[in-house]
Design goal:
Order of helices and strands: HEHEEHHHHEHEEEHHEHHEHEHEH
Number of domains: 2
Strand order of the largest sheet: 5-4-1-9-10-11
Distance between the termini: 26 Å
CATH superfamily of the largest domain: TPP-binding domain
Number of helices: 14
Structural class: alpha/beta
Strand content: 15-25%
Length: 278
Amino acid sequence: MADLDEILRAAKSNSGPAVLLTGAGISAESGIPTFRGEEGYWRVGSKNYQPTEMATWATFSRMPDEVWAWYLYRRGICRAAAPNAAHRAVRALEETLEDRFVLITQNVDGLHLRAGSTEPRTYQIHGNIDFMRCADECTEALYRIPDEVDATWDKGRKIDVATREHLLCPACGTRARPHVLWFDESYDEIHFRFESSLAAAAEAAILIVVGTTGQTNLPLHVGSMVAERGAPMIFVNPEPTTFTRMVDDNPLGLFLEGTAGDHLPGLLASVAEALATP
């Protein structure tokens, strides 16, 4: 395992981008739960559904109103939260490095964009809970969920007629779906920047992984590609995960134990200084 100065010197010698990969940990400090614990359970009738059951095309096809109710509830929590110091540090790094920066985020809460990260350089690989798209795929377009939904939906567990009318595809008038990657779906480039994420990993001068347990395929693939190249790699998390092993085995790897708020403001300032200096 290397020290930070050694890692930054190696990154500076490479012309590739600084790539950040963020997970739920960066948003936890804004008060957003991961929804993999008890907060994620959702009762429909007499049955409790786990997130892995609710967040599927199969469940949406069978009970779309109930799935929409769950997502609108989650969306309310996300919209009530505010970006924290770690989100702002990511934005500041992008402002310094501009096109030498890529953000790959697993989070659907939109907090990175609300903090000022730009859409072209932010790969939202699991979608964004503020958007919807046609369930029948009449178009690839994304539509922001109308503000009228907040006025008609009573924050309960059922979708009424008035709310349902706002959750239709503007192009064809059939049902819209949340713009998220479900557990029984695959990554693609159009909606989830699959190829772009792999291209960023292949060229990264440094990869900084923040607040993720590494339970999904694309983030693990990104980390593995960088680790196999022996490129500089830093992992920030309160406890060890699969990514810890990647940095432990990398001569240019470093594990920083702690939260995103603890480490990112200082760490990303150092990365900005190192990579922006001729």
